[in-house]
Amino acid sequence: MELLKINNLSCGYNDKKVLKNVSFSLSENSFLGVLGPNGSGKTTLLRAISKIIKPETGSIHFQDKNMAEISVKETAKSIAVLPQILEVPFSFTVEEFISMGRFPHLKRFEKPGKKDFEIIDKVISELDIAALRQRKLRSLSGGERQRVLIAQALAQEPKLLLLDEPINHLDIKHQIEIMDLLKDLNSSGLALIIILHDLNLASEYCNDLLLLNEGRVHTYGKAQDVLKYEILEEVYKTILVVEKNPISGKPFIMSVSKTAREGKKK
Amino acid sequence: MKNKYFFFLFLVIALAASFIISLIFGGTPISFNELLTGLKSSTGIEYAIIWKIRIPRIMLSIFVGAGLAVSGCVLQGILRNPLAEPYTLGISGGAAFGVTVAVLLGIGSLGLPLLAFAGGLLSVFLVYLIASKKYFSVSTLILGGVILSFLFSSMVMLIFSIARTDKIHTTLLWLMGDLSGADTNLILICGLFIFFGILILFVFNREIDILTLGEEKAVFLGIDSAKTLKLLFVITSLITGACVAVSGIIGFVGLLIPHFIRNLTGPKYSTLIINSALAGAIFLCLADAIARTVIYPVELPVGVITGIAGGLFFIFYLLKSKEWEIF
Description:
The complex is a heterodimer. In chain A, 34% of the residues lie in helices and 27% in strands. Chain A is α/β, with parallel strands linked by helices. Chain A has one domain: P-loop containing nucleotide triphosphate hydrolases (Rossmann fold, 3-Layer(aba) Sandwich). In chain A, strand 1 (2-13) and strand 2 (16-27) form a beta hairpin. In chain A, helix 4 (114-126) runs antiparallel to helix 5 (142-155). Chain B is 77% helix and 0% strand. Chain B is an all-alpha fold. Classes of the chains: A alpha/beta, B mainly alpha.
């Protein structure tokens, strides 16, 4: 069954239209990477799926239901989102922070019960953050923090997780750790849409890629169909060389500096 | 977890103690025996002092202290700004304007709190309109509040510059915070207002926790941010408006009590709201006892005491505590 179906979606802010006639669909255990230059509408797409902005035209269906008719609280039971930036002004502990993920499942006067605590425990052990449980959120390192943010999202028990550049500020070891973690979550049945700037990590981990350019879908397909030098050079307007990763066989993108480009011409 | 209950119990006992201290000290000191006779009797001087003057006033200080502290702690959360306080969104400027007009027109006892309340709400209503006109969000609210505060304060200054000195003095005293004037029925109404306001805010404690992560993340976690913000904004405004109407502008309680409590028992609003209410009540009850006694028979404006006592206490606390988090 299709989990998410976006049909002819156009939306934006005030007069500025950012997304134009975007259509694609997602099956139940997709791992979709969203690529594109700055300003191509990647984050806007995530904000439209998560009901922050309304579609101007077109529609978004989740499990065959029109999302315009589902409440924000109902949506949060099946879709979780990790924003690009999350500033937390007060010093919550990791456990308090993760517990907030149970909010959409609780009724107004309902206290978190046995089931909620079990889910929180399960998420904490799954993400291997038991040692951080009583730490203050703001005392964590970048990698630890990202795990905790994912844990909160998983406490929502989502079917779809949206991530906006979740590995931006991490070193390569922690980047790989988070991507491996996401891959494991995907294998156990969670659908993912992830915005990435790193084309090589996208190539290595994602099952499908969606390349956006100026608010439109440029190419949608498998890594080897999207990450071609003709396509990338047209969208990113820079010279790139595409080779094969010798171990995984996936496309590998290399950039070329100005000096090297000019040296070659001579 | 056990510590939290212990702290709550401690605050309840401290509030009871402050109540008794404030009953004995303040104005004409009375002995413990006189206090007991006064409490039991239904006539006589002791009766009048205790039941007609002191108890209503102590109740007022407790209501207002709790109201300001809770209003401040909720606004700090939903505005995600540790410097927010009950007056951030422009209520004090509007109320001051209302009072200045009341004094100028010579409107007496009941008119003054009513005009203060009306002025405060007018200001808040304008902030609400400005924010709704644009996208209703934290930044439009703060901006609207600052603009309106400035506008109304300037109008108060305008009136000051052309009014007679004795009228200015009455208004100035009110601006510094004054718990002496209120009528007993008004105190009861205001108390009910504040009590139910705090109750509603408490019901929303989980939403406030999540709103501190930002409006967008709150939507991701299942909260209709704009709608919830509007509701919480209206409730905190009504609480603050009620406090200001009966007691003038008492600073400090709403800003620092929440910080103090947050530092002691953590940022979760389920505990923060209740503990702030108790601590705010204790603080203002004691501050008012000091204001009544320190240069008896002249009374100081209670806002002066909250400012000086609170300021000194917090400097001391800041230097003593190892880990101080402003946020």
